Amino acid sequence: MSVKHRIKGWLRAGYSRVVFHTGLHALIDALAPRRLTILAGHCVRPSSGDWPAGELLPADMAISEAKLERILRWFGAHYELVTVAEGVERLERGSGRNLLALSMDDGYRDNARVLLPLLQRVGAKATVFLESRPLDERRVNWAHKYFWILARHGHEEFVARFGAHTSDTATFHALNQIIAEGRGNELYHLKRILKYECDPLERDRALDLVFQELGGDECELCEQLYMSWDEARALRDAGVELGGHTVHHHILSKLDASFQAREIEGGVAAMRRELGREFPSFAYPWGRRWDFDARTQTAVRQAGFATAVTMHPGVNRPDTPRLELKRLALDESAELHLLATEACGAFELLRKLGLDLTQ
Fold first, then answer.
1. Which residues pair with 254 in a beta bridge?
2. I need a labelling partner for 89 at 20 to 30 A (CA). Which of 125, 205, 315, 349 fits?
3. Domain end call among 186, 221, 256
4. What is the enclosing helix (H) or strand (E) of 76?
5. pLDDT tens, 282-333?
6. Do 91 and 17 belong to one domain?
7. With a threshold of 0.90, does the pTM exceed it?
8. Domain containing 190: what range?
9. Last residue of some domain: 195, 221, 247?
10. How many CB atoms lie under 10 A from the CB of residue 67?
11. pLDDT for the residue numbered 53
């Protein structure tokens, strides 16, 4: 990390602590324009008992039950807790307190077994975006096989075995270069190459072969990670908003228009079949602005979605495009004082004064 980024991080942390601990957040919140803050997580690690997903997921995909409860209780005392769809509706209506929505991506089993009881205990709401293939076929996307292999066999063995099964020599050399450089955080750097710099069909084929060669059981892996349709129905019946997240969790911008439409429409069709209702909210897989495009947004509208969320940080105001809603990432590294400072509009106030502490 550069000196400039370290200094910005120190300023960001110091400013947010002052805003939070002095109560200045309440004044700024009252004066700032009306807005909706959406938190974006994946999994909730239970406070007790076994959690099979723990060894199968990277750290940035989970938040502890205790930390999430603390965050929701604080925001519940200062904001109106809503689902994504409710938040957009109330934002447009323009009355009441400022808004906070909790969202979770992909449809992991702890959303039903850990998150739901937490929501009921706290009196909070949530939106859970469902990837339909794990629910229909008990199969997982390529990233989970990648995480499984690395957790058991390490980075070097993964690259060696992937190289033995792929015909994509350019990708293999790029992966080897990451290992040779030893820059740290290999999980992220290797994943970035697999995600953006290689042919997805060849990547999936080679990963499947390595996964099977090492004894992986895809159905068992899916059972450990993802909820069932019955659990999705239990969430629906408890008042949790369910939203679309495609069939396979592909990067949509890398697909042609017809393939994008099939991914988006196929996912929501499965949800209508199993859950029996319409779904206003959608989450772009991966969620960065380069992961979707104008064709994606056309397909999202045609599939019947009124709103779509990204993974770009920030809060949403009445003029925020409804198919480009911003979210704040939520994992164990999340700090309440930073979330609260963003939600109340204090970072936006600095940006208006010419100081951008966005990381």
1. none
2. 349
3. 221
4. helix 65-78
5. 999 999 999 999 999 999 999 999 999 999 999 999 999 999 999 999 999 9
6. yes
7. yes
8. 142-221
9. 221
10. 19
11. 83
